[in-house]
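In this section we walk through a basic example: taking a raw amino acid sequence and producing a predicted 3D structure, encoded as discrete structure tokens. The instruction is simple. Fold the sequence below.
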Amino acid sequence: MSSHPGQLTLSKAKSPETSDAACVVLRPVRSGARMVIESGTVGNPAYSKSLPRIPESAGDARLLVSAALDAWGLPSLKGDAHLVVTELVSNAVAHARRETIRVTVTRLDVFRVEVAVTDLSRAAPQMRPAVLSDSESGRGLSIVAALTDGKWDSEPKNWGKRVWAQLTAGGSLRA
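The resulting token sequence is shown next.
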């Protein structure tokens, strides 16, 4: 803590599993006549943002992904992660309900991240068979599957669904 009254300074705590800054939860606790701040770690490090359900949100989602990957020292994943988040956001824009979606980027371990888009539609995404066509739609989930070695899925929720995809930095956990 800072020596200045009313100011709180936090330092990053390292997580031994990921060598990354852990998420910190701060709670004020009364201790006699003074306020004490307790901290603890919760879950994996993640970046998350609610966005309007419009096509332009894919650009904001890519910025969020870039910020997370830069912070975690994983710039080699940017190209694939940008394509994945663009496809997931595009699906949510085309098929979901309501005005907003939520994009989350989570660091699973040293080499793996998960990109997820949550929306308020319960309809599970369907991967269409690859066809030779001039159509500009219908190949997004095939691209996601190829970029993630098939590590993607949809989790139904009472209020909608969460579609996620995992990316692994090259040369790490891949065979």
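Looking at the output, two observations stand out. The chain has three helices and nine strands. The first strand starts at residue 14 and ends at 15. In the next section we compare this with other chains.
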